[in-house]
Here is the input.
Amino acid sequence: MSHTDCDNKMTCIDSVPSAPELSSDFMHFMEHDRMQAWGVHDCHARAFYLNEHSSWLFGIPLRYKVCGKRFTDIPAPIFSRCSDQIVEQNNICIKEKKEITVLNVHPGGNGWFAYISKKKPHYNRLHQVDGVLSHGYSVTQSWMKAAMNIRCLMKLDGRASGQSSFRVGVMPSLSPRESEVLFFLICNQQIKQIAGILSLSENTIRSHIEHLKKKFDVHSIAQLIEAAISVGCHDFLPSTLRLKQLSMIMAN
Here is the structure.
């Protein structure tokens, strides 16, 4: 059953339904979930539903109706700054019919938030993809829990040729820029992507990575990530990134 604020007609554009079909039971479940941020987007770069926790997390004004609004029209910093990335993420779910994991950093209800959300295609009764379903949880306060979740998502053991060699060591002293580069490496970003995010050259990013390898006494990026997680880095989000809005895919 579609949200009451939306057009109930299932007209099609390019064979894609115009609105997701959601049961009243599932709507009720999302609406009353106070722990996770739930959202539903249609296949045409428009919001369909956000629960109360999502609206608070995004800093959307109370009682503002998002249904049918394009992301650029929603009065929330994450949408105005990162709408292109959000549309790209949704298109991956819709066209490739697969789940992705996204890291979002943005101002919200009463400060800045970092949270991980899973996005996956939503199917109607005809097994057509009619939208994207997302749900997420905050990781702002807990590095180790989030880092271990990331480790599972990325399957670091496989990334390191099937070997796992965690060591217990001491966290070396890192510069703010090294902390940023390490953070994005753990989030499964490539050198080119990190350079774009930080507005630096790829050679500069490579230089920072080499310095990080020396500080952690490792020889590869996979070993660097494992070593960083093994020493229990004290904060999930580098302080210099807490005022930078991001929405990026972590792992496919």
User: Anything to note?
Assistant: Residues 1-15, 153-169 have pLDDT under 50 and may be disordered.
